[in-house]
Amino acid sequence: MRVIVDCMGGDKAPLEVVKGAYAASLEYNANFILVGDKTEILRIADEEGMDLRRFDIVDAPLTIEMTDPPLAVMKAKKESSMNVALTMLAEGKGDALVSTGNTGALFTGATLIVRKIKGIKRPAIA
Q1: Is the pTM of this model over 0.90?
Q2: Alpha helix locations (H) across 9-124?
Q3: Which end of the chain has fewer CB atoms within 10 angstroms, the N or the C?
Q4: Dihedral of the CA atoms 124, 102, 45, 30 (nearest 10)?
């Protein structure tokens, strides 16, 4: 399983998100793709003593803020970590996506970028 992780969204990001992905990688048999400000992710890994050689890191320095409107993921911030992560999922570059960012933007992006599974009438949050 390939898990795409939006590292830039949520409280105390990217520190806590990177630490969580690293901890999960030690426990679960999955490949993790970290999406966010690569320089910041590598700085955190160095400071925290985390070896990220097993991780793919995709540079996406822009962040969808909690105050951004939901459509920001589609319009104003196309190079954000959330948009890049959603696009990667839609292109089949991962099997799952984890984000702790702006819920409205994530829901909107998931609906418009990833799309619904055939036969599903209404999207849901899990």
Answers
A1: yes
A2: 15-27, 38-48, 81-90, 103-109
A3: C
A4: 10
Nearest to 26 by CA among 58, 59, 43, 49: 49
Strand partners, 62: 80
Amino acid of residue 88: M
For 41-62, the pLDDT digits (tens) are: 999 999 999 999 999 999 998 9
Structure tokens at 73: 């993921």
Question: Based on the number of CB atoms within 10 Å of its own CB, is 28 exposed (0-12), middle (13-18) or buried (19 or more)?
Answer: exposed
Beta bridge partners of 58: 35
Q: At what angle do helices 38-48 and 15-27 cross, to 10 degrees?
A: 60
With DSSP H G I counted as helix, E B as strand and the rest as coil, what are the percentages for the chain, rounded to 5? Answer: 40, 15, 45
Contact 6, 97 (CB under 8 A): yes
